[in-house]
Design brief:
Elements (H helix, E strand, L loop, with lengths): L1 E3 L4 H8 L25 H7 L11 H4 L19 E3 L4 E3 L9 E8 L10 E8 L6 H7 L3 E7 L4 H15 L6 E8 L28 H4 L7 H10 L5 E4 L4 E3 L3 H11 L8 E4 L2 E4 L9 H9 L3 E3 L14 H6 L8 E6 L12 E3 L19 H9 L3 E6 L3 E3 L16 H21 L10
Parallel strand pairs: 5-6, 5-8, 6-7, 10-15, 11-16
Antiparallel strand pairs: 1-2, 3-4, 4-7, 8-14, 9-16, 10-14, 11-12, 13-15
Pfam family, one: Glyco_transf_49
Keywords: Membrane, Transmembrane, Transmembrane helix
Organism: Psylliodes chrysocephalus
Length: about 450
């Protein structure tokens, strides 16, 4: 039996880094049993428009100034007074199983099935210093959310304190499940902690947090372990595996299911629905409708994701036509069906699929890059169809990514080398497993 009693992360930060403190919240919907994202007061939007000082989650203090007396969440393992779990509660990484170096504790926080919530899960991953994106994600996503948090050593305390605060401040936490992932040699810290009702519902900038992960250069972020765990634990059959900084368009989950019903689309084991991805200037709000997005593109304030750093990664088939098609704010519909084949063999789409797609390769780290490429290759070899959706999209949190200087990326070199080595080993196994298909192109 493992019993974790962690020292307050706030005390830890004050003791070790005067520049790093955090009072972070997790925003969800405005009512415990409702499904729509919170409608933030117009005065808030006007105040924040073009405000470069705005950080993710700032809106929370406008709609929920004080924490509730009781938690809105369903916790397991005796949290928040304690965190106790046994060996039977710990699983291996979903893809590698017993060969995995990582361990998963599922459903530290378990979402409640509620009537009216669109049954599509947004499966994602997070580290302690990125958690302030969660309020924004749940603000915009109208379905369930499954999050795997990477919690090496002391970082678990930072995540736990934030979760406790979210659950007293944000009623919509009922739609969210949280799971923990850690390396077997960096188990969650046993420092004492006792969480009570938080004092505030004001969200702080978690990017300034001094985490254990960043204090040890040898720690890699197991992005694919986290992705696989979040997908595996999803409460719904339909799942979109995405990143914490990607915000969905208005009512995406509900509109997607309306499309499925309207077009009488049957479930197909080898069909996935692609969500085009864009990015906008840091001075802009996240566009909620296609019309808003297209207007920003015309004004050269938005581009398809990674256009400035990796032209092939997110340039999807038919993008020019997609920009010219209908701009209804009310519906999502199929645009075109494509395959991940030459000349789009380097395409890494994010899609609404199921739990049956190939796992992401858990030997590949975030630091080493190309962590999704082999899953896409395998889906090509399996002859998957990719239905690109119109009227639905994702937008990276404002701020365009630009190519970094070579010197700034030198730290990645050993990780890139390791990923390349593992990539070739996995590729070799895939070539043995499937019939040759030259149009899929492995490199």
């Amino acid at each position: 039996m493992t019993s974790l009693r962690l020292i307050s992360p706030l005390k830890f930060l004050l003791a070790f880094s005067s520049a790093s403190f955090i009072v972070l919240l997790f925003f969800v919907t405005s009512n415990y049993n409702t499904t729509p994202p919170v409608q933030v007061d117009r005065s808030f939007n006007n105040e924040m428009r073009g405000n470069r000082s705005y950080t993710p989650g700032d809106f929370v203090k406008y709609i929920h100034p004080e924490p509730a007396n009781q938690s809105y969440c369903t916790f397991n393992y005796k949290f928040p007074e304690d965190l106790t779990y046994g060996t039977n509660d710990v699983d291996f990484g979903p893809e590698l199983g017993k060969q995995s170096e990582y361990r998963i504790v599922y459903n530290v926080l378990l979402a409640k099935q509620a009537e009216g919530v669109p049954e599509v899960t947004y499966a994602t991953h997070v580290s302690a210093d990125f958690m302030y994106y969660l309020p924004e994600l749940v603000r915009f996503w109208d379905g369930f959310i499954s999050v795997t948090a990477f919690v090496p050593d002391l970082d678990v305390a930072l995540v736990l304190e934030q979760l406790n605060q979210y659950c007293h401040c944000l009623p919509g936490m009922s739609r969210v499940s949280i799971h923990f992932a850690y390396h077997k040699k960096l188990t969650p810290s046993r420092k004492d902690v006792y969480f009570t009702r938080p004092a505030s519902c004001e969200v702080a900038d978690s990017s300034k947090l001094a985490t254990y992960r960043h204090a040890d250069d040898s720690i890699v972020y197991p992005i694919n372990v986290c992705r696989n765990a979040a997908r595996t634990a999803s409460l719904t059959e339909r799942v979109v595996v995405s990143d914490i900084q990607l915000m969905p368009s208005e009512g995406l989950a509900r509109k997607f299911l309306d499309m499925i019903d309207s077009y009488k689309l049957t479930d197909c084991q080898k069909r996935a629905y692609v969500l085009p991805i864009f990015e906008v200037e840091s001075s802009e709000e996240v566009p909620r409708t296609k019309q808003q997005l297209v207007d920003l593109v015309k004004e050269k304030k938005a581009v398809y994701f990674h256009k400035l750093v990796c032209t092939h990664c997110q340039k999807f088939p038919g993008i020019e036509s997609w920009m010219r098609t209908h701009r209804s704010e009310d519906i999502v519909k199929p645009f075109i069906t494509a395959r991940r084949e030459v000349p789009y063999h380097r395409w890494e789409p994010i899609y609404i699929g199921s739990k049956e797609e190939p796992f992401y390769n858990e030997k590949l780290s975030w630091e080493g890059l190309q962590d999704k490429m082999l899953q896409m290759l395998e889906m090509c070899l399996l002859d998957y169809q990719f239905v690109i959706l119109d009227g639905a999209f994702l937008v990276h949190w404002p701020g365009m990514k630009k190519k970094k200087d070579k010197e700034d990326e030198e730290w990645r070199a050993p990780f890139v080398k390791e990923n390349a080595r593992e990539y070739q080993k996995i590729l070799k196994n895939l070539m043995k497993k499937y019939k040759p298909k030259p149009q899929c192109k492995a490199q």
